[in-house]
Design brief:
Number of strands: 5
Strand content: 5-15%
Pfam families: DDE_Tnp_1
GO molecular function: DNA binding; transposase activity
Distance between the termini: 44 Å
Number of domains: 2
Radius of gyration: 20 Å
Largest sheet: 5 strands, mixed
Shape: elongated
Low-confidence stretches: 1-10
InterPro entries: Transposase_11
Helix content: 40-55%
Protein name: Transposase IS4 family protein
Order of helices and strands: HHHHHHEEEEHHEHH
Number of helices: 10
């Protein structure tokens, strides 16, 4: 194990020496997309010129945070990859993660668009925020509405314990922050929320498979595919971060998702 650590630490990963194909493979961002992300984060978090200087440049710090979300490497492994210390990786993540999450911005106000809402369970090690859920693991429940036309994420909710049902979590998180939107669709788990259109149920509480049911199935497929793309970032499959860092990670990955859609379009 010691020889492996020495080999990794000698790599000294730097943004200036990375090719676009390498960035695409490691972060799922192309060179122009990553530079656009660096520019937007710099506008939100410019260098103040005070305090101790960073051992990594601003671009390399952004690359470190994005790579950490994508690969879910430990702080020690990231430190070895960037030839720095564990404490520096902690400080970089704590400094940039909230600003990356803030890039998601407020929800759009166009009431003509169809929004789809769905939930996902994220296994998290922090037992103060988790409960055992239907995936038999200690997880959190996160509500994520997206726009049906292009799968752009509208907002993300705060993480709640995984044993809470979708109705309760939606009402207490994104239900309080989303604007009043007339075209909001969800699956059968959101039965009882008036502002969300869900498949109709009969007297026996079973879903009625009428002419409108295939439309709900297609909409649910779009929402599920969007969540699957988000979970390409391994930190959403096994999160070791504590306290509010899971909320920062989900919102930051949502901002990266929207950035890719914006620049690809």
């Amino acid at each position: 194990m010691k020889s492996v650590r020495v080999t990794v630490s000698c790599m000294e990963l730097r943004l200036a020496t990375c090719r676009s194909a390498q960035l695409k493979a490691w972060t799922e961002l192309s060179g122009p997309q990553l530079h656009a992300l660096i520019t937007r984060l710099w506008r939100r978090r410019p260098a103040s010129g005070c305090g101790r200087l960073w051992s990594l440049t601003f671009g390399n710090r952004v690359l470190l945070v994005v790579l950490g979300y994508r690969t879910n490497l430990t702080m020690e492994q990231l430190a070895g990859l960037f030839a720095t210390t564990d404490s520096t990786v902690h400080r970089v993540t704590a400094d940039l993660a909230p600003h990356l999450a803030a890039l998601l911005g407020p929800p759009p106000t166009d009431r003509r668009e169809l929004w789809l809402v769905d939930s996902t369970l994220i296994p998290v090690h922090d037992q103060q925020k988790t409960q055992k859920s239907k995936n038999y693991r200690r997880s959190v429940n996160v509500q994520i509405p997206c726009r049906a036309r292009d799968r752009r994420l509208v907002a993300v909710g705060d993480a709640w314990p995984g044993n809470r049902n979708d109705v309760v979590v939606f009402r207490e998180t994104v239900g309080k922050t989303l604007p009043d939107h007339s075209r909001l669709s969800g699956d059968g788990g959101y039965q009882g929320i008036e502002r969300i259109r869900s498949p109709r149920r009969g007297p026996d509480r079973k879903i009625i498979k009428d002419r409108a049911y295939p439309r709900f199935r297609k909409r649910r497929a779009v929402a599920e595919h969007t969540l699957t793309r988000l979970k390409d970032h391994q930190v959403l499959r096994q999160c070791r971060r504590k306290r509010e860092e899971i909320n920062h990670a989900v919102a930051g990955i949502a901002a990266l998702h929207n950035l890719k859609l914006e620049l690809n379009g």
